[in-house]
Amino acid sequence: MNRLAGVTSPYLLQHADNPVDWWPWTxxxxxxxxxxxxxxxxxxxxxACHWCHVMAHESxxxxxxxxxxxxxxxxxxxxxxERPDVDAVYMEAVQAATGQGGWPMTVFLTPDAEPFYFGTxxxxxxxxxxxxxxxxxxxxxxxxxxxxxxVTEVAGKITRDLAExxxxxxxxxxxxxxxxxxxxxALTRDYDTSYGGFGQAPKFPPSMVIEFLLxxxxxTGAEGALQMAVDTCERMARGGIxxxxxxxxxxxxxDRQWVVPHFEKMLYDNALLCRVYAHLWRATGSELARRVAxxxxxxxxxxxxTTEGGFASALDADSEEPGGSGRHVExxxxxxxxxxxxxxxxxxxxxxxxxxxxxxxDGTFEEGSSVLQLPQSEAxxxxxxxxxxxxxxxxARAERPAPGRDDKVVAAWNGLAIAALAETGAYFDRPDLVxxxxxxxxxxxxxxxxxxxxxxxxxxxxxxxxxxxxxxxYADVSEGFLALASVTGEGVWLEFAGFLLDHVLAxxxxxxxxxxxxxxxxxPLIRRPQxxxxxxxxxxxxxxxxxxxSYAAQTGSAPHRTAAERALGVVxxxxxxxxxxxxxxxxxxxxxxxxxxxxxxxxxxxxPATRALLRAALLGTAPGAVVAAGEPGxxxxxxxxxxxxVDGRPAAYVCRNFTCDAPxxxxxxxxxxxxxxxxxxx
Length: 682
Description:
Helices cover 48% and strands 10% of the residues. It is of the alpha+beta class.
């Protein structure tokens, strides 16, 4: 029976035709394992995971290996992007047992879902000190059949140890000036002064840390914070991690210099980085930041937007290499040799392109190919000619076999994309981007939210998945709706955010104010996951804290403000030890320390004076400032209550910590009040 045929996960569908008799994660799967008296083989991965594809080809497509699995195990396949709760619980066990983690994740469980043997990728033959997957299967089978009592005892102890792990830092007082300054100092020590970013290879884009640096600079004037943000963003934008032809960022760089990426392109990375570069432009006016923000936004709309109006999760790293060999190779779609440049451009322009993009005969990647970079100033090249070169290379690349796309729509990541596209569209007068953000928000409301405003995590091809939303879904979708409300002045988005955040308070918050990744009424696992650290995306905890704070500023809700301040205690506890992994939490703390400021713009939407004030308000760098715009007294936007026009003219009101400045009709005065530059665009 092909039990994966009807699922919505592209990753599971990739395995639907394996000879392995896969089950999705369901109660029925574990009931069947009990009936048969066999252990469960849990395999967790995701669609764009390179080594997941490798292990699938080597082992799960192999008839002999499949026969061994089917005869002695109950095989369960999980998409970590659809079930982050399952992934988090067992990844914690893998890391505790082995000291490391990653995907594919391979865990053996009892029929009661208790883990007893752990690993990640296993090769088909022994290599580099690793046993083969067949050896692992044989060893686990023998242990289960010959020493089952010992195995179940070990599994029970591991499960009890996991269940007893609690967050010792809990919640409490939010960080103050001193804690934020110490976090900045710790980041400075870990900063790579030669190439930007933090730490050594592999290097991941530190989008959430950069957001903190920008906000800290805006609040305190710390030039070092701004310089780290500027230099890191420029290094990434000029490196191979950025797609120099089509826009958008790859997942990470395998080297310290940002030259060679792991080529998968994720929606969440690009949403976060689009917003970061837009905010960098807002702070500095950098032309590079403007270009990258817009190109990344255009990439998301062009290559990730689905027919239904949402955004797909990822593009694979691998694709078929040009030439029709049928061989799938990492990066094949993106890299170039000098000969390929000559074929696409002719000799003269190929030489220019090679110089401009750093393509060499030796190459910077594999087999003499190069990842395109911008190793030197563009000013020494003819702009029109380079534009022509880029256009022709992009057209030539489009003829290559494209990477596969993971078409599932993840609520949380679409929330991040909504926020990024709404703000980028507003900053750069691109209403099409705001329209794309609105369409994605409409899809989430129409398809992912039920009548009680409960979220489903995923959908595909217009069909909603069976998995309940987790904390990051409620938080990031709220963040997107709040950004859309500020940009469009449509109070319905603020209302929807309120519905979602009420669930956060009621179903994801513990008695002490701590936040959990799953709802109180979610499917019980061996441990209720709870991770406040920011990783590839803001943690649900950090994201919820930010959304609660913004919603409180928009509405004056004391319960939401109190919940945000209590939850910020985790930042105070974690930042001294690991500021790189609490970047969004630090950014939210900057907003709390600054107020955040509340800006109400009142006036007719079609009045140029209203539009000028709204633009200035949206471009303010005051950390986490919230904006509401509309006719005086618009009921859906509480910030507009009791805020009349001034002498019959559109006006802006700026408030902070329960104190309001005098209203102003002057754009220059408004800019000064919220740290906005004069961009020269009305």
